[in-house]
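Re: NAP structure - here you go.
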Amino acid sequence: MSPRTNAVLETFSNFTVLLNRVLAWVDFLVHYISGYLLFLFLGGLRPQYHTRAKRGYTPSVIITGASQGIGLATTRHLASKGYNVFATVKDEVELAKLAEDITDDAHKHLAPRIHFVIMNVLDQSSIDAALAAISSTVSKSPNSPLIALINNAGYCMISPMELTPPKALHDIFDLDFFAYVSTIRAFLPLLKQSSGRVINVVSYGAYINPPMWAPYAAIKAGLEAMTRAWRFELIPFGVGMTSIRPGWTRTAGIGPKISTAWRGYSDQIDKGAVGVNSLGEVVRSDYPVGHREKEVYSKIMHKWYNMTMAAAEGAAQPAEAVALTIHDALSDVFLQPYYTVGYDALLGQMVRDLCPESLYELSMIKTFL
Ligand SMILES: NC(=O)c1ccc[n+]([C@@H]2O[C@H](COP(=O)([O-])OP(=O)(O)OC[C@H]3O[C@@H](n4cnc5c(N)ncnc54)[C@H](OP(=O)(O)O)[C@@H]3O)[C@@H](O)[C@H]2O)c1
């Protein structure tokens, strides 16, 4: 893509962020009015103000996968808004990288509010160690109770369901679904003490279910359904739970890493490469792939290649836009069941909500087949 096209795409993306903020404020207004009316007259959810940072009160939040992308942008944004952030990363190497990234000149002033903690969300002993360290710190700071866990660590996979090997499926479910459950269970006792919140970063893949996204859509839809049901179970404990539905977002995953994976995919399409993921890996299959399957799936994968490249090179929203929405969820007086961010996500949501299913299906067929 030429630098000029890239600049046009970026300008468009920045404009949509602004539009998104305007829509968010309109939504807030409607939601506040209805929230207070329901609370006053019908026994709806009680308004909560203690999750907002203010002078002399710096509530603590934990974020998983803070080394880059949405996690890093959210760490910086929340610290800039007066929160005490436990930025968790999977190992020592990432910890060193994060310490460098956070303390660059533009963000040096945030360093006192950011605490780096190792937490590999796939390893229960690592979660337990992080819990012990964080509990001990917050117990000594009455002005910084732990008021939120932000589950963000995860990746996406674009691969035909028929050919995706079980191991690739298990791996993505482990990080994008089961690890969310493990961290919530671990930190729930602390969140109950503070009437805190769980914020799960899901995806618009939860409700837009295009071809090649079967595994990813299944996980994100499962996460969102879990969030909506678990949310009710937690109301008696004063704990809130919500989902964030980002659309395409420019991050390392949906950028350099997925580009690397696409190169590997196209080089090895005749040697078992069937898909890509945003960890930068090629999904490989041992199944025999017939001529027709190769023809159909390669054609759809090619369309995805064009879309992800356009997203990575400018069309997608910046990670900071998602950080703003996570802050909205954190500070909302009435926690909503989900928050959508990104023009593609909002548009997709509108099409699914307002159009007949047959029209939605037609749009998918025309786009991909
Ligand atoms: N970008 C998008 O377009 C988009 C759209 C919708 C939803 N989302 C969702 O948003 C979330 C973040 O996406 P992103 O694009 O910001 O991803 P990203 O740039 O690839 O970052 C993912 C983060 O997860 C961390 N992580 C991976 N394995 C981990 C583990 N075992 N323990 C702890 N941390 C681990 C990574 O750490 P390392 O660097 O150490 O691996 C990294 O910090 C994901 O849940 C994704 O599904 C993204």
